[in-house]
Design brief:
disordered N terminus, about 70% helix, Amino acid/polyamine transporter I, mainly alpha, about 500 residues, two-stranded antiparallel ribbon, globular
Length: about 500
C-alpha cells in the first residue's frame, strides 16, 4: 500500500515572495477587521491588545524556529503531519493530521461567508446581494444572492489553484501586497488625524462591567466584557493572548507547500518571521486606528458598529471606506487561496501515505498540483455560503485547537530530532521545549473555563462539534488503520 515513493511529486514553482504571501494571507482574515469592535477593544482595550499581539507574535516566532529546523529535514508536503509521522508514529500522525484538516479547511468556507458582509458594510445599506429566497440558521440570515456570489468566488479560486500553483502564488502575492499597503495608508492617515484631534484611547485595558454598562451594554451582556478595569491588566492581556493560535494560524501553512519550493530551505525562518511580524502589525494597527479616530468608540462598540469602517470613513470619507473595502477583500480572498493550498496539500500528503483514500494523492500531470484533493476542498467549502457564519463558527473554533496541536507536535518532533541526532543546539532545544509548553497552555485556555476570561474558551456548540469531530476521527482511524504506513 505504500505509495510514498512513487511518482506522486509536486512541481517546484513557488518563490519566497509567493510563500510569504501564502502565510501572511492566511494569518490575516476577516476577523482582524471586525474584532476590534467585537473582541479586542471591549476585552483588552488598545494597550492590552497591543501587548497581547506582540507577546503572541513572539511566541509564534519561538515556535517557528522548530518549523524552520524540521522543514529541511523533511521537505515534503504535509508539514506537521509529516513531522509527527516520522517521529511519533502513525497514531499520533493521524491525530495531528485530523485536527489540522479542521484548522485549515474550515477557514475556507468561513472566509467565503464574509464576502456578503463586506458588500453589506461597504454599500451603505443597499443590500445588493440580499435577493432571492432566504432562510435563517442559528439567527444568521442566508440569501440566495450571497450564496451565488460567494460560491462563484470559491469556484474561481479553486480553479486558480488547479491550473497551477505558480499562478495561484502570483495572485496571492498581489492580494497580500495590496492588503499591507492599504493598512499602511490607513495607519499613517490615522496618525496624522489623531495628532490634530487628540488621541482618545480610554479605557486602554478594555471595559470592566461598570464601563460596559455606561457605554450602553445591558447588565447581563456586560459580564462578557469584564476583562479590563477592575479585572486587572493581566486578565485584559490574557483575554486576547489566549486566541494567538487563531490569530496567527497561517505561518504554519509554509511547510505544507515545502515540496513546491524552488529556493533554499534556509530562507524559511526569515519568511515565517516576516509574515508573523506583518500579521502582528495589521492586528494592532486596525485596533489602534479604530480607537484613536473615534472619540466615542465605547458607545460604537456597544452599538455593534463596524468600528474600523466607521473610523476610516470619518477620517477619509468615501476613500476611507474604499481603503477598508480593498484591505478586507484582499484579506478574505487571500485567506481562501492560502487555506485552499494548505488543505489540499495536507490531504494529498495524508493520502500519499494511505491515511486518506488514494484518489486524493494523485497529482495532475499537466499542472503538477493535487487536483482531486483541491476539488474535494472546493466541494466541502461550498457548504459555507449555504450554512451561514453562525453555524460555521462552531467548526471554526476548532481551528485554534488544530493549530495548537500542530505547534505542539512540531516542537516535540524538533526536540526529539535534536536528541536523536545529538545536535548540539541548546538554544533551539529550549525554544522547542517552550513551544510545547505554550501550545499546551493555548489548548487549556481554549478548552477550560477560567474565571475572568469569559468568551475565550469554547461555547457549548463548539464543544459538541469538537466531540463529533473526535468521534468521526476515531471511526475513520479504525477503518484506515490496517493501511497506514508507520515509519517511526
Amino acid at each position: 500500500m505504500n505509495n510514498s515513493n512513487g511518482n506522486h511529486q509536486l512541481k517546484r514553482q513557488l518563490n519566497p515572495m509567493h510563500v510569504w504571501a501564502i502565510a501572511f494571507g492566511c494569518i490575516i482574515g476577516w476577523g482582524s477587521f471586525v474584532n476590534p469592535g467585537k473582541k479586542f477593544l471591549p476585552n483588552s482595550g488598545v494597550a492590552g491588545t497591543a501587548i497581547a499581539m506582540v507577546l503572541g507574535a513572539l511566541v509564534m516566532i519561538i515556535i517557528a524556529f522548530s518549523y524552520a529546523y524540521m522543514v529541511p529535514k523533511h521537505p515534503q508536503a504535509g508539514g506537521e503531519f509529516t513531522f509527527t509521522k516520522n517521529y511519533f508514529g502513525k497514531t499520533a500522525a493521524f491525530f495531528c493530521g485530523w485536527f489540522l484538516v479542521a484548522a485549515y479547511l474550515t477557514n475556507v468556507p468561513m472566509n467565503s461567508t464574509a464576502i456578503g458582509l463586506i458588500v453589506d458594510g461597504i454599500d451603505g445599506g443597499a443590500d445588493i446581494l440580499k435577493f432571492g429566497f432566504h432562510y435563517s440558521i442559528a439567527g444568521f440570515e442566508v440569501y440566495l444572492g450571497e450564496i451565488i456570489f460567494a460560491s462563484a468566488i470559491l469556484i474561481l479560486f479553486a480553479y486558480l489553484n488547479i491550473i497551477g500553483v505558480k499562478k495561484a502564488g502570483f495572485v496571492q502575492t498581489v492580494l497580500s501586497s495590496l492588503l499591507i499597503v492599504s493598512i499602511a495608508v490607513l495607519t499613517i492617515s490615522a496618525l496624522i488625524s489623531s495628532k490634530a484631534k487628540g488621541i482618545n484611547l480610554a479605557p486602554i485595558w478594555g471595559f470592566d462591567k461598570a464601563e460596559a454598562i455606561a457605554a450602553g451594554a445591558t447588565v447581563e451582556s456586560a459580564d462578557k466584557f469584564a476583562h479590563g478595569g477592575t479585572m486587572g491588566i493581566m486578565s485584559a492581556i490574557l483575554a486576547t493572548f489566549a486566541i494567538a493560535p487563531w490569530a496567527f494560524v497561517g505561518f504554519d501553512t509554509i511547510p505544507q507547500v515545502a515540496e513546491e519550493f524552488k529556493f533554499s530551505y534556509k530562507k524559511v525562518i526569515g519568511i515565517m518571521v516576516v509574515a508573523i511580524a506583518f500579521g502582528c502589525f495589521v492586528y494592532t494597527a486596525n485596533n489602534t486606528v479604530a480607537a484613536a479616530v473615534l472619540e466615542n468608540w465605547p458607545e460604537r462598540v456597544m452599538a455593534g458598529d463596524w468600528v474600523l469602517l466607521v473610523a476610516a470613513e470619518e477620517m477619509l470619507g468615501i476613500f476611507g471606506k474604499v481603503l477598508v473595502g480593498v484591505a478586507v477583500s484582499c484579506a478574505v480572498l487571500s485567506g481562501i487561496m492560502g487555506f485552499y493550498m494548505a488543505s489540499s496539500r495536507l490531504m494529498f500528503s495524508m493520502a500519499r501515505e494511505n491515511y486518506l483514500p488514494a484518489i486524493f494523492g494523485k497529482v495532475d500531470k499537466k499542472h503538477g498540483v493535487p487536483r482531486n484533493a483541491m476539488i474535494f476542498c472546493m466541494i466541502i467549502s461550498l457548504s459555507g455560503p449555504i450554512l451561514g457564519r453562525e453555524a460555521l463558527g462552531w467548526f471554526v473554533d476548532m481551528s485554534a485547537i488544530g493549530a495548537s496541536m500542530g505547534f505542539f507536535f512540531t516542537s516535540a518532533a524538533a526536540l526529539r530530532s535534536l536528541k536523536k541526532d545529538k545536535d548540539g543546539r541548546p538554544i533551539l532545544a529550549v525554544m522547542s521545549a517552550l513551544g510545547m509548553i505554550f501550545s499546551f497552555i493555548f489548548m487549556v485556555l481554549q478548552l477550560v473555563p477560567i474565571p475572568g476570561l469569559n468568551g475565550v474558551h469554547f461555547g457549548r456548540e463548539s464543544y459538541i462539534m469538537l466531540i463529533v469531530w473526535i468521534v468521526m476521527g476515531v471511526v475513520f482511524y479504525i477503518m484506515q488503520k490496517k493501511h497506514l504506513i508507520d515509519e517511526k
